[in-house]
Design brief:
Elements: E1 2-7, H1 10-17, H2 20-27, E2 32-37, E3 50-51, E4 61-62, H3 64-74, E5 79-84, H4 93-99, E6 104-108, H5 117-123, E7 126-128, H6 138-151, H7 160-164, E8 183-184, E9 187-188, H8 191-194, H9 198-216, H10 218-221, H11 228-233
Parallel strand pairs: 1-2, 1-6, 5-6, 5-7
Antiparallel strand pairs: 3-4, 8-9
């Protein structure tokens, strides 16, 4: 996979993605991430990337021409162009899974009052938000989206089991995790996890996952297909 990031602060994206799983995926040859500075595609001596909005109002708007030039320099027919926007639907695990199957992703990280709508209409395939709040620019959102996508690329994470057990992977939240010591300030690791009985551990984890989802994110249960074993645990004390 190739991912191109268009922004005016490419160092923000590079710094957050050069480590951990994303960096290792690049080292393995599974992924190539390229940074394009939109200012390099301006034509005026000041390298201007924004201008005042038509109709008046506060803030500035990303000029369309430099963004389009940057897009044209990397776009090909299999490209998927993504624009992080607080006005868009929330990014989720299913979006990450689907985008991980693409060959080429292009992210446009805009700032200020956003991107000229004509660029969105003509070039952008998908828009996503991090949630119902506004952040300074699209670079951080781009970094978060890429991190989630790369985890879904086969071979990027050492054990696929780690990905399969992530929260949201199967529509439910993950179960609680514990490590040594067995006791900490009077709090013990649940006995079932120390038993070595794999089937009991599996059932405990599944039950914890379902009840944790019911407690913290009940909305997710409406979208999940639960088996009879899972339905039995709803409403029980964890």
């Amino acid at each position: 996979m190739i991912i191109d990031c268009l922004s005016i602060f490419p160092d923000i994206v590079s710094a957050s993605l050069g480590q951990s799983i994303v960096g290792k995926a690049c080292d393995k040859g599974l992924l190539e991430i390229r940074q394009l500075d939109i200012r390099d595609f301006t034509t005026d001596k000041h390298h201007s990337v924004d201008d005042i909005p038509y109709g008046g109002g506060a803030g500035m708007v990303f000029k369309p021409e430099p963004v389009i030039r940057a897009l044209k320099s990397v776009w090909r027919k299999e490209s998927r162009v993504i624009h992080p926007s607080p006005a868009a639907p929330r990014f989720d695990q299913e979006a990450a899974r689907l985008l991980a199957q693409e060959e080429h992703l292009i992210f446009i990280a805009s700032r200020y009052e956003g991107l000229d709508q004509r660029v969105i209409d003509a070039w952008v395939d998908l828009e996503y938000s991090l949630g119902d709040f506004v952040i300074t620019g699209g670079e951080l959102a781009t970094s978060v989206f890429i991190d989630a996508i790369v985890r879904m690329i086969p071979g990027a994470v050492g054990k696929h089991e780690s990905v399969a057990q992530d929260s949201y992977y199967n529509g439910l939240l993950d179960y609680p995790h514990y490590t040594r010591p067995e006791e900490l300030d009077g709090m013990r690791v649940p006995d079932v996890l120390l038993s070595g009985h794999h089937e009991n551990i599996r059932q405990w984890r599944k039950r914890q996952s379902i009840q944790r989802t019911q407690r913290l994110r009940p909305d997710l249960l409406q979208q999940s297909e639960l088996d009879q074993e899972s339905l039995r645990w709803l409403g029980e004390d964890s």
